[in-house]
């Protein structure tokens, strides 16, 4: 799996990048048919205290899977986004047909 991480409107953060790679690697270990993972981190002003956005696009057989979340920290946003992706991947795995 190829992983790319981009930080939009903010400086690069090594600890967040390492966390994302670790979480995506775990995801790949469970779902080895993931081809690429594009991760985007964005900082936005939010009056509710949130504004830390994580968006992940997974390329795999069939349509792409996309999830994003807006939380108070990038760590929480990453965790929530990965949780959403796991649900979508489990659903996709159930829909996949085995090769005959």
Task: Give a topology summary.
Blueprint: E1 2-8, H1 14-30, E2 36-43, E3 52-59, E4 65-71, H2 74-95
Parallel strand pairs: 1-2
Antiparallel strand pairs: 2-3, 3-4
Helix pairs in contact: 1-2
Written description of the protein model:
The chain has 100 residues and is α+β, with helices and mostly antiparallel strands. The protein has a domain of 57 residues. Helix content is 39%, strand content 30%. The chain has 2 helices and 4 strands; from the N terminus they run βαβββα. Strands 1-2-3-4 form a 4-stranded mixed beta sheet, covered by helices on one side. α1 runs parallel beside α2. The chain starts with a strand and ends in a 5-residue tail after the last helix.
Short account of what is shown:
It contains two helices and four strands. The chain has 100 residues and is of the alpha+beta class.
Binned, the helix content reads: 25-40%
Percentage of residues in strands:
25-35%
Overall body shape? elongated
Would you count the extended β strands for me? 4
Mean pLDDT, all residues: 92
Q: Can you tell me the residue ranges where pLDDT is under 50 for at least 5 consecutive residues?
A: none
Instruction: Report the major sheet.
Output: 4 strands, mixed
Order of helices and strands: EHEEEH
Radius of gyration, taken over Cα atoms and rounded to an integer in Å = 14 Å
> How many H/I helical runs?
2
Oligomer: single chain
Strand order in the sheet with the most strands: 1-2-3-4
Termini, distance in Å?
25 Å
């Amino acid at each position: 799996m190829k992983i790319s991480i981009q930080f939009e409107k903010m400086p690069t953060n090594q600890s967040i990048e390492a966390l994302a790679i670790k979480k995506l690697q775990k995801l790949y270990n469970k779902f080895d048919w993931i081809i690429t993972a594009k991760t985007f981190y964005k900082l936005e002003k939010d009056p509710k205290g949130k504004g830390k956005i994580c968006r992940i696009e997974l390329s795999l057989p069939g349509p792409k899977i996309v999830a994003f979340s807006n939380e108070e920290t990038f760590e929480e946003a990453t965790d929530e986004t990965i949780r959403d992706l796991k649900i979508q991947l489990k659903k996709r795995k159930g829909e996949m047909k085995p090769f005959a």
